[in-house]
Amino acid sequence: MAAEKKYIIALDAGTTSIRAMLYDLQSAKFVFTAQQETEQRFPKSGWVEQDASEIWFKAQYVLSRCAAAAGRGNVVGIGIANQRETVVLWDRATGEPVAPAIVWQCRRTSEYCAAIPDEMREKIAQKTGLPVDAYFSASKIRWLLDNVPQARDLLAAGKLCAGTVDSFLIFKLTGKFRTDHTNASRTMLFNIHTLGWDEELLRYFGIPLEILPEALPSTACMGETDLGGRKVPVAGVAGDQQAALFGQACLNEGDGKITYGTGLFLLFNTGGKAVRSKSGLITTVGYSIGKKTVYALEGSAFNAGSCIQWLRDGLGLLASSSESEMLALSVPDSGGVSFVPAFTGLGAPHWNSDARGLLAGITRGTTKAHLVRAVLESIAYSARELCDCMQRDSGIGLREIRCDGGASANNFLMQFQADLLKIAVNRPAERESTALGAALLCAIALGLVSEEEVFSLRRAERVFAPAENGQAEEGYRAYCTAVRRALL
Ligand code: ADP
User: Fold this and answer.
1) Which of 308, 325, 410, 416 best tests ligand 1's pocket when mutated (most atoms within 8 Å of CB)?
2) Which of the four CATH numbers 3.40.640.10, 3.20.20.140, 3.30.1330.40, 3.30.420.40 does domain 7-237 have?
3) Is the pLDDT assigned to residue 87 strictly greater than 50?
4) How confident is the model over 336-346, as pLDDT tens digits?
5) Which of 120, 132, 157, 372 has the most other CB atoms within 10 Å of its CB?
6) In this structure, what DSSP letter does residue 311 have?
7) DSSP percent split of the chain into helix, strand, coil, nearest 5
8) Is any atom of ligand 1 closer than 6 Å to the C-beta of 300?
9) Distance between CA atoms of 435 and 59, rounded to whole angstroms?
């Protein structure tokens, strides 16, 4: 490749895999990807762990593949997007993890969290924007301190580091103990209004400030790493969903994106205001550039694309996920069938972990196509519930939704979503929004791209304009009735 080429590597450390993608600044495109699966372990019911050493080992491998593809000296920076909330504890002197990483999905601290008194819950919500839950990092760090003797020894010796996956990778790459504001805002220890670790919460959870990383803006330069014998800055860091928000150029108040992956994640830019939700949504740092902080409301549904997987692998109704589109379009409606995708309970605004899935309105005339259509429609309905909460809580109207994730490839689903929300659904040409967000944050950190230019770097592949669709509204009412039944 030509010597003057400038590339950024976006390191996307996900839950099931770690990827490095090479972003070409001239063509504004990804030109190379290296990916490695990372193993998850389930040592007990509800427990989920990962080996942080494996994450680091595979990160080095994918980075070196990208560096080789770029050619010597052509990589100008490395940005990071990562699975959020997952906790790693390591030895500051050796960089070695002292225990398996506790993954965000792990429920081992549910009981501990359930015992947190109401008064403290209120303080936590005010300061961190989060409802108390085992999902967030604080109780996971507490558990490790209580259960790993080596962690206690290192703590006593002043040599313990605790952090999320970004901070572990930054430490390994640069030797600096740092994180960014978006990742810090998922720990339940970080005051999102003052952008600092909160002394009162640290005291409550018994977590000393010294074991936590320095929290910096998402566009900070975290340090330098050696890549093929040259020093390269590690700059531009955000949690995966926040990186996707940025990659989708949701930079104005009222801009929102939905990721239709295994689950569904809606993030909505609320500008400089940290909006407190009345519907159980999460308030989080969207991103921070220098002194500017942008907040977001976040809502998620646990099951979205997984419902299509269930149709394909569980019921054997589909040969492939994409076949669902053709089947849904082969019938004019779902034939009165409603589906509630509550395989593992219902998230915001219901927060009921005991609810289970429901199929309602089946008749002798119900066909496979009706069922598939009902399942696809249910994904759009759960997104509508979240959008309604967002708009109610924030008082800000959504102008359009930007979509990404595997199931956003489904044209039926995207059109139905637009009709139901009565706003356009905008699908980008580059659907790797998470990696793109990390690459763009890095480009901004290095002064190669301005915040304004991010808008022009996003290209729409297709915009689904809302059409008059009375059926969608009627179906939504039937869905809401079915949800009430699922909650009984
Ligand atoms: P994740 O990153 O959460 O693993 P992806 O963004 O890769 O997920 O999306 C994968 C999901 O998208 C799968 O659950 C799959 O069933 C679903 N999916 C992929 N293509 C389609 C399609 N054309 N229609 C509906 N769902 C799809």
Assistant:
1) 308
2) 3.30.420.40
3) yes
4) 999 999 987 88
5) 372
6) I
7) 35, 25, 35
8) no
9) 14
